[in-house]
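thread: overnight batch results

M.L. [08:02]
morning all. the overnight job finished for the chain we discussed friday. pasting input first so we're all looking at the same thing
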Amino acid sequence: MDILLIAGLWLDGSAWDDVVPELTALGHRPVPLTLPGQGDGTASATLDDQLAAVLAAVDAAPGKPLVVGHSAASSLAWLAADARPKKVAKVAMIGGFPAADGRAYADHFAIEDGAMPFPGWGPFEGADSADLDQETRHRLASAAIPVPEGVARGVMRLTDERRFDVPIVVVCPEFTPAQAKEWIAAGESPDLARATHLEYVDLDSGHWPMATRPRELARVLAEAASS
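M.L. [08:03]
and the structure it wrote out:
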C-alpha cells in the first residue's frame, strides 16, 4: 500500500528518512511529502497550497493510500480525507488531533516577518522531548523551516460528512490512549468524537517518533495499512 507521510510544523519530507526504509522492508510504498512553504522554497504558500499537494499525492496513488499526519499535520491528513473520502483508505494521526471546521490550522506560536519560526525547545520540555538527545535536538532545530503565515493561520474548511466513515488510527506517543480518549470525550476533537471507525495505538516515545523510534513507528504504520 502507498503510505503518504506528512510531517508536522517546521519539517520537510526528510523528517521520514529513517522510517522510509523500514516501511519499504515491510512491503509498503512510503511517499514522504515536502509541502509548499516547508522545504520547497515557497515562502508565500497557503494551507490550500499544502492541501493541493497532499491531494495530488492521494490522486497519484495506484490504490487507496494510508494518509499519515504528524502533529499539526493530522489536520492536513483529515482535510485530505474530507476532500477524498472514497479514495483515502485510512488516516493515521501521530501525536495530534485535527482542528475543527472554521478554526485556524496551527496558529500556535508568534508570527515574525510573515512566518512562524520554530520557537525553540522551551514549549516542548517534558514528555514531548524527553527522548530527544542533544544531537537530535540540534539536528531537528537546525533543519526547522519557518511555517508561512498563510499555512499557520489558514482556516480549516471541512464539507463532506463522509469523512467520518474513513477509518482513523490515533498513534499516541507522548500521551496514552486513555488520555486521548479522555480528551476526545471532553470535546477537544469534535470530529474524532464523530468518527465511525477509531482506534488507538500506544507508542512509547516523545512527540517526534520518526526521529527517535523510526522502526517502531514503521511497524505501527505498516500494521495500520495492513488491517
